[in-house]
């Protein structure tokens, strides 16, 4: 019987998840989303989950509380150390401008397709000769395609309705061609939200709604707020991430947190990550012994002056100078939606922003 089940599992269509977000800092709930989603598909017996990817957004997204991409990537690497299937992709942060989520999905999907279609050992290398660190290990165990789905919390789904934030065509492409896996979040009503959207209703079969029966409303905003007040965040985030925050003095962490005299050994690797990336950004010299997700990018140099289109900005006069990133639009507009009492989850977020 178990041999039969194993055989059946081998035949299941393969999927992977990618979560796009700020991860400033990463919280256990960011990682729980992956576990909850994998459990769901495995228990349904419909798909084989081969990997999970965390893709932090570009610095020019400019959302309030966004630590530098170097620090966010280093923290994600620390947070996923305990996982054998969730990986960091720093492709997005190494682009010279903010990337829309549809493009992020497309890039990773194309990379996996090319990798699977190329002969083993050929055509699968990055320019520096190594494979990207986010690529699932078991990809070449089979030849069939792996379908990449966007994994998110219900608040991200609801941000589709923020006027001018997402491009309609992108939403359609994401749900029609990639698929969405949505984890419920307190105060959100994703079923109703889907019902109220024609596009989402049209592609409902590609949207997997998963109830999180053990909700935890920890958010990066809450963690940042506690840190800046000198309050404890222990057990709210990974110890390694907390150590990193203290050492790097991120998020206005109050002095009580920065008295550790000893540099913990487990952070050395990630300091290598940030140090190497910083050096690379300054010197344009590549690093050795690092996979793609560790790779420095000369484009980091351009970030200080990078330009972005604000969401929904179709001005023929070209991109605006980066003063306001798309992430700031989220805050401004969600404050308006608070006035309209749209959702409890949004209200909570806004309250955090306003304090
Ligand atoms: N507690 C949670 N429950 C379910 N999903 C979550 C939770 N926290 C974050 N997510 C999801 O994780 C993804 C990345 O989140 P992101 O870092 O952008 O937001 P966040 O943790 O809510 O941060 P912030 O508080 O800065 O807005 C999003 O899809 C978001 O919906
Ligand atoms: O692609 C888009 O148009 C788009 C519009 C708004 C937000 N996003 C992405 O959504 C992610 C979460 O954003 P936020 O503001 O909810 O933390 C982050 O990775 C953004 O780049 C993407």
UniProtKB/TrEMBL annotation:
<dbReference type="GO" id="GO:0004515">
    <property type="term" value="F:nicotinate-nucleotide adenylyltransferase activity"/>
</dbReference>
<dbReference type="InterPro" id="IPR014729">
    <property type="entry name" value="Rossmann-like_a/b/a_fold"/>
</dbReference>
<dbReference type="Pfam" id="PF01467">
    <property type="entry name" value="CTP_transf_like"/>
</dbReference>
<dbReference type="GO" id="GO:0005524">
    <property type="term" value="F:ATP binding"/>
</dbReference>
<keyword id="KW-0662">Pyridine nucleotide biosynthesis</keyword>
<keyword id="KW-0520">NAD</keyword>
<keyword id="KW-0548">Nucleotidyltransferase</keyword>
<protein>
    <recommendedName>
        <fullName>Nicotinamide-nucleotide adenylyltransferase</fullName>
        <ecNumber>2.7.7.1</ecNumber>
        <ecNumber>2.7.7.18</ecNumber>
    </recommendedName>
</protein>
<keyword id="KW-0067">ATP-binding</keyword>
<dbReference type="GO" id="GO:0009435">
    <property type="term" value="P:NAD+ biosynthetic process"/>
</dbReference>
<dbReference type="InterPro" id="IPR005248">
    <property type="entry name" value="NadD/NMNAT"/>
</dbReference>
<comment type="pathway">
    <text>Cofactor biosynthesis; NAD(+) biosynthesis; NAD(+) from nicotinamide D-ribonucleotide: step 1/1.</text>
</comment>
<dbReference type="InterPro" id="IPR045094">
    <property type="entry name" value="NMNAT_euk"/>
</dbReference>
<comment type="pathway">
    <text>Cofactor biosynthesis; NAD(+) biosynthesis; deamido-NAD(+) from nicotinate D-ribonucleotide: step 1/1.</text>
</comment>
<dbReference type="InterPro" id="IPR004821">
    <property type="entry name" value="Cyt_trans-like"/>
</dbReference>
<keyword id="KW-0547">Nucleotide-binding</keyword>
<dbReference type="InterPro" id="IPR051182">
    <property type="entry name" value="Euk_NMN_adenylyltrnsfrase"/>
</dbReference>
<dbReference type="GO" id="GO:0000309">
    <property type="term" value="F:nicotinamide-nucleotide adenylyltransferase activity"/>
</dbReference>
<keyword id="KW-0808">Transferase</keyword>
<comment type="similarity">
    <text>Belongs to the eukaryotic NMN adenylyltransferase family.</text>
</comment>
<feature type="domain" description="Cytidyltransferase-like">
    <location>
        <begin position="18"/>
        <end position="225"/>
    </location>
</feature>
